Amino acid sequence: MKTLVFLEDHEGKLQKDSLGVLSKAASLDGEVEAVLLGTQVAGLAGEAARFGAARVHVMEDVLLAKPLPQPRIDALETLVGERGFDTILFAATVLSADIAAGLAARLDAGLNWDLTDFVVEDGKLVGKRPALGDSVYVDVGWTSEPRLALIRSGTFEPEARADAGDAEVETFESRLQDFSLAAEMVEQAHEESEGPSIEDADVIVAGGRGLGSPENFALVEELAKALGGAVAATRAVVDAGWYPYAAQVGQTGKTVSPKLYIACGISGAIQHKVGMQSSGLIVAINKDPNAPIFEYADLGVVGDLHEVVPKLTELVRQRKAA
Ligand SMILES: Cc1cc2nc3c(=O)[nH]c(=O)nc-3n(C[C@H](O)[C@H](O)[C@H](O)COP(=O)(O)OP(=O)(O)OC[C@H]3O[C@@H](n4cnc5c(N)ncnc54)[C@H](O)[C@@H]3O)c2cc1C
Description:
- The chain is of the alpha/beta class.
- The chain contains eight helices and 17 strands.
- Flavin-adenine dinucleotide binds next to helix 6, helix 7, strand 16 and helix 8.
């Protein structure tokens, strides 16, 4: 297997999910290489090597400065044509999903998306993917090469390799098509936020409809702050406009796997569960002892969150101060 992993960077840092996919690919047999596209990205090659890339292909061009898919599709088409990769992997993001779909069309290749694992079985690459509202897992394959795959966000933890050497860096060039340069990025805004993002956080405190009002998200935010964690939300409260979509966890939101997930006023519907079930320790605070979340929580507190959460926050603050 000769695998290429597309690495996405933001503000000079490689995305955690990209490194997770790279680590996983490197844990399988075969050659694993990575590609960096942008301006001033060559400096990230060492990091890519640490997480398993034997060789890093780099294309730097001012026309790749903005996170737009089309020029990247041109560059990847050139690279794959020159180097003959049989597998091309992407960690799913808005940008990489566009790139993967465009590249699949250019190469007339098959793209499997939303994979939560990939393994080699009987010498063949097999993707694992949730289906039917995440209630079952199915095996998916490819009928031709190259095989393209998008991996669900939060699926793999990046694991640095003890045996990692220096990166072999190779620069390449690609002609960018006129039509690929037609789109312009007019504005890019960043949401103001404090603390870690929910994809990166070791601790997540999540709020649901049980909070009763958007103002009560302050309770969840205070606890998250005390624990140095991030705030997440259910779809019910996002749909109600209580909290931004970026914080939504679940089937139609993000998949997270923190060490600790504290669910406050969340019933634990299957569509929420699929986004957080791989968390290390799940703590649920709910006033209904029959809430489904207690079926899979490691620790359950039956009580009114308006009483429990502020006390918990106070306790955490006291312990930290001690
Ligand atoms: C196609 C599809 C996709 C979906 N995608 C997602 C998704 O990505 N993410 C997601 O989260 N949902 C998703 N949903 C919605 C999901 O089915 C649930 O409706 C949703 O998760 C419920 O959110 P909730 O737990 O906040 O609200 P509820 O189900 O209303 O639960 C509120 C809970 O708070 C408890 N409570 C109330 N007051 C208190 C109190 N004072 N103290 C303590 N506990 C209290 C209640 O006992 C209850 O268990 C999806 C649904 C569909 C059909």
